[in-house]
Amino acid sequence: MPDLLPDRHSLPELVQHYLPASRRERLTPFVYAGGMVAIGLTLLLAKPRIGNVPRSDLSGDRPAMGRRRRAARKSRDVVAPFAPGNVTDSIGRSLMVGGVALALTRLLDEMSGRD
Q1: What is the C-alpha radius of gyration for the chain, rounded to an integer number of angstroms?
Q2: Non-local CB neighbours of 73 within 8 Å, separated by 6+ positions
Q3: Could you give the CA distance from residue 92 to residue 84 in angstroms, rounded to a whole number?
Q4: Rounded distance between C-alpha atoms, residue 12 and residue 112, angstroms
Q5: Selection from 43, 46, 25, 45 nearest residue 35 by Cα
Q6: pLDDT at position 105, please?
Q7: Number of domains in the chain
């Protein structure tokens, strides 16, 4: 005959499963999102010198000897526009996008209600 009542070891798991999350747990993602946006904005505004990346065309425009070097130089010129000039800018933008996405997801989750 199966037990219809939970034992004392499974009771905390049932409480966690059926009771709504505390207010603190529901607001924590907004705090994280705000921190991510703040750090990202700080990185974008400060532009630390440590994040600067040297130019990609260090070898100049001298004629390249050999087909492999010419192919490598042409490939470099195609890929170079996608490389960041300042790595901290890229990190800052990523943090801001992630923070906004986290806050928006949590907000929509709250608006959708409970099951």
Answers
A1: 26
A2: 59, 64
A3: 12
A4: 26
A5: 43
A6: 93
A7: 1
Q: How far is CA 19 from the centre of its chain?
A: 31
Residue 57 located in a structural domain: no
- Taking the C-alpha atoms of residue 90 and residue 76, their distance in angstroms, rounded to an integer, is 20
Q: Is the residue at 69 inside a domain?
A: yes
Residue 8 lies in a domain: no
User: Would you state the pLDDT for residue 91?
Assistant: 93
Query: Per-residue confidence at 32, pLDDT binned at 50, 70, 90?
Result: very high
- Asked if 115 contacts 53 with a C-beta cutoff of 8 angstroms, the reply is no
Please compute the mean of the pLDDT values over residues 81-97 and round it to a whole number.
89
pLDDT at 48: 84
| Domain membership of residue 33 as a residue range | 26-52+64-112
Please check whether residue 90 lies inside any domain of the structure: yes
Classify residue 7 by its DSSP letter.
P
Cβ contacts of 87 within 8 Å, gap of 6 or more: 51, 52, 53
